[in-house]
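Hey, can you fold this?
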Amino acid sequence: MTASLIIPTYNPTKRIVGTINSAGNQSTPFDEIIIVENGSSTEWLMDGCNDIAFYNHSSVAGANSARNLGAEIASGDLLVFTDDDCELDRDFLTQHLLAHNRYPNSVIGGQVVLRFEEECPDWLRQPFLKSLAEVDWHKQLGSHTAHADILVDGLLYLVTANMSVRKSTFVKAGMFDETAGYIGDRRTPNDEHGFLDRAREVGQTYYSSLPVVHHNVPRSRTSIEYFKDRFWGQGYADAMLLEKQLGNKDHAIHACLDDIYRKGSVSHQLDNEKFDPETDKDIAMEFSRNLYICMAHYNRGVLDYFGQ
């Protein structure tokens, strides 16, 4: 099975060099590496990609537009997606290929490990780590079988930082929704959710902990200001997704309010993180305050989408 790696990028930083180098240093080599720079004004990557990757510049903004363009020009049987701030383990592609041997015509998602460029604050727990695209379902589900594959249903998720699918299945499932996800400077996630919903109608989706990427997190993404912006975007994106799924604005608003209530339960998150009431009191208070603030921004994102 031939494999094409697709990396969308917008106003790329030097971190993408680590992504490209790790992709070019696989134990099983990619047949091609495709980089699509979408909607940004720089093309400095062009000179550095010629020997390793195929570079394409698109005037259309949007990470999903870039992924779809990369998929269209890809020659591989298997499409593999990652992000421009990730580094791939050396056996990353090997593990994706083995997973597709186990589950033909499925979508496979792998583990995303956060790599902080500087020490992260003590209060930085869930759901903040989730918003940084950490994916480790064995840890979150408390699984004792650390390497068993997990069938992904509507309650779980995969991310485009570590995902693969046969090109034929990708086309059949309708590709990525180009109105969703990150577009230019708009911080609205959910790039993959609509696609995964459609993919489950034509096949199955699995999580495997064995294909691993390390997601580099700069200091700027560990501040409360970043998370306020990020949670606003999540609220906006969730409202958009629910309106598409339910087909009714009023129903979508009620679904979003239910979601806000569920996600905004600070006491529930405190219990999950198991803060020690004696030694972690100050950390727990900071965590609670920051989560309340961010959930208010999530709520604002929902209301902004619906124009209220």
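Oh, and this one too while you're at it.
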Amino acid sequence: EENVKASDATVIFGDDPSPGCGLTKRLCKRHGKPYFTVAKDAFDSTGEFQAWLVEQGVKVLNVAGNRERTNPGIGQFTYDFLMAALGGATE
């Protein structure tokens, strides 16, 4: 909850109906913070994510989502997505 409160917005990676994603969304709503959800197979949404960051005026971004053990590959996907969306190079 403190991460949601301390940020301007949250991006949530992974399985949307998971308990953790649901909790993060509820906390964002409770504290009036915007959130953006990225499904593991939605790499093509980087442009939409970039536009959302600008629209929301995000300076501090909270990154949340599934654990690797419950969603294998989500860690690498999250890394690649953020690097592509924020201007870094992927390995």
